[in-house]
Amino acid sequence: MAVPSYATDLNDIYTDGGSWTTLAGRVTDPDTDDYIQGSSCWSHDPFSAGIEGGVVNSAETITAGHAVFVWTKADISPALATHAAGGVQVLIGNAPTALKCFYVRGSDDLIYGGWKCIPVDPTKTPSTNIGSPSSVTDYFGVRWNIPSTGPTKGYPLKIDAIRHGSKLEVTAGEIANPASWATTSAYDAVSTRMWGICQPTDAGAALQGYIYWGTATTAIYSRDTNKTIVINDTEWTDTDFTQIIFANAGNDVVWDNVGLLALGTNNRGIIDVTVNPTTNTITWTNSVFQDIDITNLLASCVFDGSKWLSCNEVTAGGASLLNCKILTPTVAADSHGLLWNVASDPDGKLDGMEFSKGTNAHHAISFADTIPSTITLRNMVFTGFNATPASNDSALYFADTAGTITVNLVGCTGTVTAKSAGATIVTVIDPVTLELEISDIDTQVTISGVTVLVEVANGNNFPYQDPISMTGTGTTVTVVHSGHGLATNDYVVTRGAENDDDYNGVHQITVSGVNTYLFTSDETIGSSPATGTLTATFAPIFGYTDPDGLISDTRTWVSNQLITGKARKATVPPYYKQQPITGEIDNTKGLTITLQLISDE
After folding, report:
1. What is the reported pLDDT for 490?
2. How many helices (H) and strands (E) does the chain have?
3. pLDDT (tens digit per residue) in 431-462
4. Closest among 367, 348, 360, 424 to 390, alpha carbons compared
5. According to the model, what pLDDT value does residue 107 have?
6. CB 92 within 8 A of CB 102
7. Cα separation of 412 and 233, whole Å?
8. What is the DSSP letter of 81?
């Protein structure tokens, strides 16, 4: 790449000279003593108890969504009317007698005077009108309202560059000369330009309008740190007028502690990395975004350690948000602070995040309907969310309409419930893993396809030899099991049926009530109800080892749990003899068992 390059779509309406019409009073044109752009400005004399100003004639077509940027100055701000009363008014219209008047400043918010660049979209409904203006934009200017005694010396009321457009583009940059907020705002502020889109401040920059870091055709190399970028309150523009856009797949941006602060509520500022929805390497860490609008990210983004305070939603796109905070977001009811909209488990991407609820009843995180059936959330903090599941302000929301989603909550604190569009949500708090690895005792090669059954060996956590009753119709068995505490798809081992052995065995259940569940028998039940001393025991594992000889279960155990079981391969060669399984699951660490089988051939 080369040194940074800068471009804008702003079109000049007035810079120096021009054909002006004075709206009362006397003027100095050109004023070559006190200007901000070029070599002169338009100045108005002091006055009292009146509304005076001027407009310049230049026929322009303003693109939809764009704004007219007007540089103006009032060195006598205490004498002005308030903002609400139109102390400073931007004028746009089709004739000097047909103008829209937009109230933009006043004595209450132009306290220190000085030059201000104010963007106004002429399609917005104005504060008031002079005459009957049309939609034609041929005249542009400013007038000032001094309701009482005004100044008596000099020419304190001024207008300088007027342009229309919306954006600034920053491209290129290199290791020796990276693009940054300082280089960009300094380029904007050269007197021959004074675009007013990205203005330098002591803390960083003030932004109003679009800024593109990289374009569709040219990437950016940028490095920056320790800056605060304020989003100016542009009350007369669209609500999405200010955006920070990363538009090239080859971008290389690393910013640290570069914060954003929105100064108003109409145009709060947007971060968008998705304009080019491919790899867009943006690392923007340890930064505070306050009161801004939405943030749209991609999987190639790293925003670790950053905070969104009273902002609208963050769409993660798979980005790394480790140890980030989304606090008191300003989203609508039943919406979310964070949207995880990719088909992957967020484990390792969202670890350590903190969420708090804003004014409306919203979720902390929403998951798109592409989410895997099992996900893990680690070390998160949830504050202020509803303890009642299926609420608009349950901490989690899932867009899936069917199926079961298991959410492993590891080291999370606060109230965590879930709402879904129809799917069953199972939350597992601080789960640990029971894993068995099975191999050949002679060759040490792992064995796939081994049948493994693991049961609890006491009642510390789940049912152990609990008394039950069973009835059967066809192949459907109904089990009455008081306070079983089991979940659909769990396994139980039923024993003791003497009149029909099809009741006995390992069964995957469907929960039908707090005291009942169902399972399907291998054969049609021949006698109902089951007779004998009937019991049920929970089995955390029942199945076959995978190609790596592994089988596992992950869940929460309130206390340590003794287990028993067996492993055998007897249906498909090579065959292996049955071996017993014993051990104790540590409820904070889990348990890994290495089991070796003896050949049975």
Report:
1. 96
2. 1, 52
3. 999 999 999 999 999 999 999 999 999 999 99
4. 424
5. 96
6. yes
7. 38
8. P
